[in-house]
TrEMBL record:
It holds the Pfam family IU_nuc_hydro. Keywords: Glycosidase, Hydrolase. It comes from Pseudooceanicola nanhaiensis. SUPFAM superfamilies: Nucleoside hydrolase. PROSITE patterns: IUNH. This is Inosine/uridine-preferring nucleoside hydrolase domain-containing protein. GO terms for cellular component: cytosol. Residues 4-284 form the Inosine/uridine-preferring nucleoside hydrolase domain. The keyword Hydrolase applies. InterPro entries: I/U_nuclsd_hydro_CS (IPR015910), Inosine/uridine_hydrolase_dom (IPR001910), IUNH (IPR023186), Ribo_hydro-like (IPR036452). GO terms for biological process: purine nucleoside catabolic process. One of its GO terms (molecular function) is uridine nucleosidase activity.
Length: 295
């Protein structure tokens, strides 16, 4: 299944990328990066470092440094200054590519047979919006887009909205309103997918570097404050839902909702039919994630 990952790593991005790069059911042609959880230089470096740990020489194409007409709002409190919760990763095995993300996407989609490449989107949708507006013919050749973002019936995590859509609402509106074959995985689904301490031991017991690194990342993803011990479960594993949905759609409850993106990134009732994952088989997802990370 040929695919390109658009990402802003990010703890949960890193887990998703390790799973996708190692899984034999996915062929990741490249990663494109965007400013989101942290600035572009760090997200780009992190993508290369994650690929190095996975043992995959995946090209990384830097993209947008900021949202469309807005200032960046990084999420350092969750992901840390390095974006990876302080977990050690090797240096990248190859430098970032000179060709920027949108140029790469346009060239690759135009050269490939139509409707053969998926976009797996783990980040604010700035790169994809620029592709849609600057190269609409290339964007029309995408097989499907699977994107983590939004909150439908659930409250958001940035006011009314979810981070990826709230970071760049204008980009989100362009992409979600473009009529692409798109599946959105919102907080309604991802908040059901978490890990506990026993699951971390399951990952560590594989003795595989991607699984061990993911255990360390999830451990950094447990809620903890200065005066409160770690909770019994991690924060939601949002981004791994994207490659898991690409490979195991049967583990997601998909509904068609008629929505639009509001000025702050909130999803409200609107004219655009969008396929939305409103539920998950969390036990099934945990099992499939562990299997993939052990490949």
């Amino acid at each position: 299944m040929p695919a390109i990952i658009d990402t802003d790593p990010g703890i949960d991005d890193a887990i998703a990328i390790l799973y996708a790069l190692r899984h034999p059911g996915l062929e990741i042609a490249a990663m494109t990066t965007v400013a989101g959880n942290i600035g572009l230089s760090v997200t780009t470096a992190n993508a290369g470092r994650i690929a190095a740990l996975a043992g995959m020489p995946t090209p990384v194409h830097p993209g947008a440094k900021a949202p469309l007409g807005r200032a960046p709002r990084p999420e350092l409190g969750i992901h840390g200054n390095d974006g990876l919760g302080g977990v050690a990763f090797p240096d990248a095995a190859r430098a970032p590519e000179a060709e920027d993300a949108v140029a790469y996407l346009a060239r690759t989609l135009t050269a490939a047979p139509e409707k053969t490449i998926d976009l797996l989107c783990l980040a604010p949708l700035t790169n994809i919006a620029n592709l849609v507006t600057q190269h609409p013919g290339a964007a029309a050749r995408i097989r499907r887009v699977i994107a983590m973002g939004g909150a439908v019936d659930e409250p958001g995590n940035m006011g009314r909205a979810e981070f990826n859509l709230a970071h760049d609402p204008e980009a989100a509106a362009i992409v979600l309103h473009a009529g692409l074959d798109l599946t959105l995985i919102p907080l309604d689904a991802t908040r059901r997918f978490r890990a506990d301490a026993a699951y971390l031991e399951t990952l560590r017991a594989t003795a595989k570097a991607p699984a061990e690194a993911s255990a360390a990342l999830i451990d950094a993803y447990f809620v903890q404050t200065e005066h409160q011990a770690k909770g019994s479960e991690s924060r939601p594993l949002h981004d791994p839902c994207v490659p898991l949905c690409a490979l195991h759609p049967e583990l997601f409850t998909i509904e068609t909702r008629h929505l639009r993106v509001d000025h702050d990134g909130a999803l409200i009732e609107g004219p655009h039919p969008i396929s939305v994952a409103m539920g998950v088989d969390a036990d099934g997802l945990r099992a499939r994630l562990a299997e993939g990370l052990a490949c």
